């Protein structure tokens, strides 16, 4: 039988118990600090069952925060190609996700993050460990500068999503993606690889 | 008797009726499309009473959206001085407001805008008519480019507020204001006066 994608089988109560424990652990300790073993203990299941249901820690994290996309599938296209074009490619990928059906889930996530401290922490961990770290690891920049660079990129991209999809400020709300890629790409590029006052 | 600042006198029910009608009118028709006369009619009061309680249409708008600051008091400092420094001065002013007690009201406003379409519209009108239009009117740029420039500036500044005060992504969350002024000022300057692909 072909392996099914989408929702995996398993006892719904057990799945929910694991996801609840995972949300708590990732929010409280961060992605790096949370362990599958501790999450399994909190959910009162065997760690092997967590792996069976969700796969890797990355996958469990994405499931726990209802992430609408898996950055590991999208980032290779951003990272392939010339270093000076990575800002534009990252903005193009970001806009593509938000303009797709996944954008609805993105708005829901932003909405939740703004009103709920736990979701804000999960969103922060998502941005850092699933997106920014993976992009910045590929660039030849001073490791000490990575956190500032990453959080500046996040500030511009989240603000772009806010204006385009939540506040709906024109013309950003309905501009052609390539207009925004050309306008915002150089900003993201500078934050990633340009001179910063660190 | 010295003129009191702060909450003005008047019948609380009448004040609330006017504010409710004003919120509806500004959200439905925008700042430019809403009139004091129509707001007064909706609140079933005389237009002179609206002026008596709230002063100008600008002041009524700020009261209706619980704006924690009046941009007309802050923007002159941003606009005074050399054109090439306006991006840094705007970021410095913006961070100063958000790092002050007014920032708490700002977070509440963002929170409400994300979950409530009306507040999102009011925030959009606030950004455009009270802040961006006033800044851009002072700059010698093509009027056709003003909306895109304004909404790009808004995307960066709102994203900065989101990361610093809501998602609290480090090091942006606790960076010295001048670090962020130096990092983000050039972005805002480019959006205001630089070459854009319009």
Automatic annotation (TrEMBL), chains A, B:
A single MF term (Gene Ontology): transcription cis-regulatory region binding
Domain HTH tetR-type positions: 12-72
Classification via InterPro entries: Homeodomain-like_sf, HTH-type_TetR-like_transc_reg, HTH_TetR, Tet_transcr_reg_TetR-rel_C_sf, TetR_C_16
SUPFAM superfamilies: Homeodomain-like, Tetracyclin repressor-like, C-terminal domain
A Pfam family recorded for this sequence: TetR_N
Lineage: superkingdom: Bacteria
Record keyword DNA-binding present: yes
Keywords, in A-Z order: DNA-binding
Ranges annotated as DNA-binding: 35-54
Name by which UniProt lists this protein: Transcriptional regulator, TetR family
Source organism of this protein record: Micromonospora inositola
